[in-house]
Amino acid sequence: MRMGRTAMTGNGLDDYLRALVAKDAALAPVAAVMRAVAKAAAETAKQIALGPLGSSHDGGAIPEAGHANAGGDVQKALDLLTDRLFTEALADAPVAVLVSEELDEPKRLNAGAPLVVAIDPLDGSSNIDVNVSVGTIFSILPALPDAADDAAHFMQPGSAQRGAGFVVYGPQTIFILSVGGPTAAFILDPRSHAFALLKEEMAIAPDSHEYAINASNYRHWDPAVRAFIDDAMEGEDGRLSRNHNMRWVASMVADAYRIFTRGGVFLYPGDQRKGYGAGRLRLLYEVSPIAFLVEHAGGKATDGAKRILDIVPTAVHQRCPLVFGSAQVVETIVGYHTDPKLIANRSPLFKARGLMMG
Ligand code: AHG
Ligand code: MN
Ligand code: MN
User: Fold this and answer.
1) For the chain, what are the domain ranges?
2) Checking phi first, is residue 322 left (phi over 0); if not, alpha (psi -120 to 50) or beta?
3) Are 175 and 196 in contact (CB under 8 A)?
4) Which of 64, 214, 284 to mutate to test the pocket of ligand 1 (most atoms within 8 A of CB)?
5) Please, which residues have CB less than 5 A from ligand 2, an ion?
6) Coil, strand or helix: which one is 68?
7) Which of 11, 82, 231, 332 could form a disulfide with 122 if both were Cys (CB 3.0 to 4.6 A apart)?
8) Which top CATH class is 210-343?
9) Residues 328-342 pLDDT 10s
10) Active site (catalytic) residues
11) First vs last Cα of the chain: how many Å apart?
């Protein structure tokens, strides 16, 4: 069994990173960032498992810190605790500037260091209170020697990332990462607090019948997204000729890990709600790192029309529509956005008339 074998050979995250650096010394700073993230993630996993018993909680109910972050979300105590844990760990790594979901402005860490990091310290924080998986997502970019200000380091396309990763704090704590090679998975051993290798090369199944979307926003979606979901829901009698299954955890990390494990597609499109024109997810520390990991596992990631990794950011907290997962399904969804034939004759009026006539 894979886990038994890796445990017996002592094949941990540290060995993995050491082997990468032995092959390519230029990876040393990126490896140092991965180690820093692993350290903070192990502590985060411990705090999450403690829940109301831990120091970040207050008498069983998790207090809301009460302030809104740059994206307008109310910060929870665990948002702030994880932000502090990851900031402290990354301050000991070769990171010049840090962008965090929980900080309005970029934070200077180590002047002259070769890398910058963007991080969502706690993804899915609406799920903390209900004991559902949450996570951490991060992106590593090269620091730009001629950057005009701290934010300017981050105005690079996702394809410039030197590495990326996400951690899921679920029944197990899993760390998915890539330094530009295959996307690998590690599992936290709670006995040793070390990450053991789970899978060296994650491969996202090229096709799937499973999709993830917050369907309560149906009426706000654009016609292309509606048409795809309508066709998926029509099952084997519809245009896609197969029955579908739907999952939505509301923690992207958990939906992403499922997709890495058994395929599928995730959509958080832009919609008509105020402030949701570019969806909900943030380009630098949610969309771009997931896209990097997905592509290095054979999947695809798009905003509906453009490849995510080609998008050049213009602001550190900017949002971006996201569709990622099994390559063939992502291509199908891009088709709905680009082929006018697929959304013709689907106006609500047409549907209503069709219903009345039936
Ligand atoms: P965060 O907790 O960092 O703000 O991110 C939550 C994100 C993502 O994880 C999830 O898929 C999505 O928001 C859920 O959005 P809805 O509540 O709109 O479904
Ligand atoms: Mn998030
Ligand atoms: Mn968050």
Assistant:
1) 4-202, 210-343
2) beta
3) no
4) 214
5) 120, 123
6) strand
7) 82
8) alpha beta
9) 999 999 999 999 888
10) 73, 79, 101-102, 120, 122-123, 286
11) 56
Q: Which atom of ligand 1 sits closest to the CA of residue 124?
A: 2
76 lines ligand 1 (CB under 6 A): no
Alpha-carbon distance of 35 to 214, in angstroms, equals 34
Determine the pLDDT at residue 55.
67
251 within ligand 1 shell (Cβ under 6 A): yes
- Name the E strands within the chain: 64-68, 74-76, 95-100, 107-108, 115-123, 134-142, 163-169, 173-178, 184-189, 194-199, 210-212, 245-246, 265-268, 300-302, 322-325
Residue 5 has pLDDT above 50, yes or no: no
Report the nearest-CA residue for atom 17 of ligand 1: 250
User: For position 258, what pLDDT does the model report?
Assistant: 98
CA 316/CA 282 separation, integer angstroms: 9
Q: Report the distance separating Cα 266 and Cα 243, nearest Å.
A: 17
Instruction: Name the CATH superfamily housing domain 4-202.
Output: Fructose-1,6-Bisphosphatase, subunit A, domain 1 (3.30.540.10)
Ligand 1 neighbour 124 (Cβ under 6 A) = yes
